[in-house]
Amino acid sequence: MTDRLSILYLGVDRGTSRHRLNSLRRLGHSVCVVDPESLLWYQAAVDYWIRHGSGIFIGGSARRRVLSALGSREFDLAFVNGGALVDRALATELKRRCAAVVNYNNDDPFGRRDGGKWRLYLKALPVYDLAIVVRECNVGEARAAGARDVLRVYMSADEVAHSPRPLTEEDRYKWGSSVAFIGTWMPERGRFLARLIELGVPLAIFGDRWHKAPEWPLLLPHWRGPNLFADDDYAKAVQCAGVCLGLLSKGNRDLSTTRSFEIPHLGGVLCAERTSEHLDLYREDEEAVFWDGPEECAEKCRLLLAGAGFRKRLSEAGRERCVRNQTTNGKILDHILTVATSRVSLTSLNAAEVACT
User: Which domains does the chain have, with CATH numbers?
Assistant: First the structure.
């Protein structure tokens, strides 16, 4: 367990980023959060602009606003989550204020899926004391891009956000499904789910952008609504599904995703693509179910739906394995901090509560 630190958390205050922020606090650290996106008056256009516009101009604006929000405060450690808006000048200033500056990125900043989104990240990468990546292929790529030090970890479930909830009959009625996929549309996902429907799989889809799919007329009757941003809604949708599909992002070169950990930790039945990482994480047909294509996936779904006892055994064993693997935020973040603080000499800055305005 790392000694108590004063931490500047630079990242969005929502989704899995918020889960990591909350986990750092549960570990006993004093955490000040600054969300660069929330400081920009054109928040709605930020994602489009960093993908397609000039990251130089948006980076300068974000830098000035972040530094204004921080005032003269200093910290033991700066934890940059993602870093699409953090330019090299801001990373350098963080180095002046903090004994250690680390970057955690659970996307694939060296791939092609996100256009120019990671332009500023790549320029700032050599400044960080430690770059944390979640794909083995990113380790060598980060080093080649100038990273001083690289740590690879798995993505993770959150001990609190992804803990099983007590369910009512109303919950089961509202969220119940036979086979569920919870996630955003991507071209390969539309084709895959359309094929499952053709094969007779009783599918429920939760997520955004599905109307963009060429297969939308076929998918529409199975679409149950947009992304589940509320932790309780997401947890109940997973728990109330007979089977939960784990689809990868091919553009992100995934071999596992956050769903690979969240679903088992919530007690759901994970039915995911057969990859080397999934096979390392779970025993096939004992802790999770895997497939190589839509036909095998459809067959596995039919077997699972026909066997309540089989599903129950998978659910219990999968959750136990997830906990045993220590692929949860608390375990992984504590490991990151241990590695980061071992690389530098931390001069204690009195880890009192640090409030940000």
Answer: 6-156+329-343 (3.40.50.2000), 169-325 (3.40.50.2000)
